[in-house]
Specification:
Rossmann fold, alpha/beta, about 350 residues, six-stranded parallel sheet, single chain
Length: about 350
């Protein structure tokens, strides 16, 4: 799909429920702090909202608080001037160490280095609300019933509804539009706005390769390994190499099993997000399960196939930006058969092959 679902549905909601000032009523030059720390997919889903905000609010400047493992990503967006890495996960494990408290003090100083016109918590969690309270500026976030953790709403002076049944991209665009005072149009085009990360060379990885994202945080979202074996054999038959990333020992072992006996398959080395982004950006396409890297591939304008055996694509599917190569979400059992997936990918590959 080329546009996030639900845009037409929410346009009437915006008009009926919210009375927004025109963009001219907003600051001539405005600095905001975005708080969206995790996960990778959630961070990607906020990017179109930021692109739209830059178009609607001239003179807008943005800083972004994000978990340190994802810190490379916001900096690829031209509106983001400063990325403030958070290490809440690591700090919780090291509260008995003086270095942890030194890092947390430095983090707080970074949050308070500027006085913001708006601190927007787009996460809706208690941890993100606490970070918002540390920053210097009026706080806004999701309303009760829209935030994932209701107590987070107590931290915001301004609260905005964004129905949870909408796709995450649409929810983020809706929240940001309300917070900054412009209408989210029903026909607004979706643009992630990312600059292409520098290519990252992996030994033995030829130019014509497909990234196959087999790893995901929840086992019910996985595509069966036996089906991967059949699917990858068909992809290799198209004359394409297969690149298999991994993020933990279990995924590495599966990648090694999938690559065994498959001509042209490469198990990637352990890579950080910046390096992996470079590998994905240079691929001919992507096939993957519901995982943050699949959404990153969408933001980097790759054609591909999303495999959704357990989660509804209407809320969690990958979406191509306007005028980008197509992305197809498959969720029915017949669609997820290896032969059907390979056929769908072959059609996309033929359409976009240069």
């Amino acid at each position: 799909m080329n546009k996030a679902g639900g845009i037409a549905k929410v346009s009437g909601f915006i008009t009926a429920a919210i009375h927004l000032p025109p963009p001219s009523a907003i600051f001539a030059s405005m600095r905001i702090l975005i708080i969206k720390m995790t996960s990778l997919g959630d961070v990607v889903h906020l990017l179109p909202a930021l692109t739209e905000a830059a178009r609607q609010v001239p003179g807008l400047h943005a800083d972004w608080v994000v978990e340190e493992g994802f810190a490379a990503l916001p900096g690829w967006h031209p509106l983001v001037e400063r990325v403030i890495p958070s290490a809440l996960r690591r700090w919780r494990r090291g509260l008995g160490q003086s270095a942890t408290w030194t890092e947390m003090a430095a983090f707080r100083r970074e949050l308070q280095a500027h006085q913001y016109d708006l601190v927007l918590d787009a996460q809706g969690l208690i941890k993100s609300a606490l970070v918002a309270r540390l920053a210097d500026g009026p706080r806004a976030g999701l309303a009760l019933g829209s935030a994932r953790e209701s107590l987070a709403c107590l931290a915001y002076a301004r609260r905005y509804p964004a129905p949870r049944e909408l796709h995450a991209i649409t929810r983020n665009r809706l929240l940001t539009a309300q917070a900054l005072g412009y209408p989210m149009g029903a026909e607004a085009e979706l643009h992630y706005g990312l600059a292409t990360p520098p290519p990252f060379q992996v030994a033995g990885l030829a130019a014509d390769y497909v990234v196959c994202l087999h790893g995901t945080a929840r086992t019910e979202k996985e595509y069966p390994e036996s089906d991967w074996v059949k699917l990858l054999a068909r992809i290799a038959a198209l004359g394409l190499r297969v690149a298999l990333p991994w993020g933990n020992p279990r995924e590495k072992e599966r990648a090694e099993r999938l690559a065994a006996g498959l001509h042209g398959a490469i198990v990637l080395p352990k890579l950080g997000l910046a390096e992996l982004g470079g590998v994905i950006a240079a691929a001919r396409g992507v096939i993957g399960v519901d995982t943050g890297l699949m959404h990153l591939a969408a933001a980097l304008r790759l054609p591909g196939i999303g495999l959704y055996p357990a989660t509804p694509p209407g809320r969690f599917g990958v979406y191509a930006e306007a005028d980008a190569p197509a992305l197809i979400n498959l969720s029915r059992p017949d669609e997820l058969a290896p032969a059907a997936v390979a056929k769908a990918f072959a059609s996309l590959f033929a359409e976009h092959r240069q």
